[in-house]
Write a structure and sequence with these properties.
Blueprint: H1 11-17, H2 24-37, H3 43-50, H4 54-61, H5 64-85, H6 94-110, H7 113-121, H8 123-131, H9 137-149, H10 161-176, H11 178-181, H12 188-202
Length: 206
C-alpha cells in the first residue's frame, strides 16, 4: 500500500471542500437582486436562501427596513457614481456642479422603476425607508451632500455644512416624492431650483 492510500482526509482538504460562510455583503447582494426583480424581501426567506439563521440576519441588520435601506442606498450610490463620472460642463463652478448633479440624481432616482414600484406598493413604508432615520438612506444622502458642500469656496462661515445638507436633502425629498406626500406630481425640476436657491443664499449670492 502506498503512503497516501486509505489515509483520512487532512484538515486542509476538509477546509477546501467546506463552502465559505456567507458574508453580510452576500445577503445584501441577494436582497438587491430580489428588489430589482420586484420580489418581496422576506427576512425568513432571505436568511434561508443566504444559508444563515434568521437570528443571525437580525443580529446583522436589525430589521427588514434596514436591509431594504442598504439595498436602496446601493442603488442611489451607483447613481451618484454615474452622475459624478460625467464630469463638469465647461461653465460649472463647484456650486453649479453640485446643483446640477443633485438635480440629475433626483430625476434618476425618481424614474428608476424598481424604486418607484417599491414606494407605490406601500407608500407609507416606502417613505419610512427612504426619508426617515429608520434606515441608512437619508443619513447617507446627508453625508454625501455635506461632503460636496464642503468643497464650495464661498459658503458663509456661520452656516453649519451639515445643517445645509440636511435642509437640501429634506427639500429634495419633499419635491421628488410629492405625489406620495401631498398628491402633487413629482417635481424634480422644482427640487433642483430650490436647492439652487439654498446653495446661492448660503454662498452669499442673490
Amino acid at each position: 500500500m502506498t503512503s497516501g492510500e486509505g489515509s483520512s482526509p487532512q484538515p486542509d482538504d476538509l477546509m477546501s471542500s467546506t463552502p465559505p460562510k456567507p458574508a453580510r455583503a452576500d445577503v445584501i447582494d441577494l436582497a438587491h437582486r430580489w428588489f430589482l426583480d420586484g420580489r418581496r424581501i422576506d427576512m425568513q426567506q432571505l436568511a434561508r436562501e443566504s444559508g444563515i439563521g434568521r437570528a443571525t440576519l437580525y443580529r446583522w441588520w436589525g430589521s427588514r427596513e434596514v436591509v431594504i435601506g442598504e439595498v436602496v442606498w446601493r442603488i442611489i450610490a451607483e447613481a451618484i457614481r454615474r452622475v459624478e463620472a460625467r464630469g463638469p460642463s465647461g461653465s460649472d463652478d463647484p456650486a453649479g456642479r453640485f446643483v446640477r448633479n443633485f438635480g440629475t440624481l433626483a430625476d434618476t432616482v425618481r424614474t428608476f422603476e424598481p424604486l418607484t414600484r417599491f414606494v407605490a406598493d406601500d407608500p407609507e413604508y416606502g417613505l419610512r425607508v427612504l426619508t426617515s432615520g429608520y434606515t441608512v438612506v437619508q443619513g447617507r444622502m446627508i453625508d454625501w451632500a455635506a461632503s460636496r458642500l464642503t468643497d464650495l469656496p464661498d459658503l458663509d462661515p456661520r452656516i453649519e455644512v451639515r445643517d445645509l445638507a440636511y435642509a437640501i436633502v429634506r427639500v429634495g425629498e419633499a419635491f421628488v416624492w410629492s405625489d406620495i406626500i401631498t398628491g402633487d406630481p413629482p417635481q424634480s425640476g422644482k427640487a433642483t431650483a430650490m436647492v439652487e436657491l439654498l446653495v446661492s443664499a448660503a454662498s452669499g449670492k442673490r
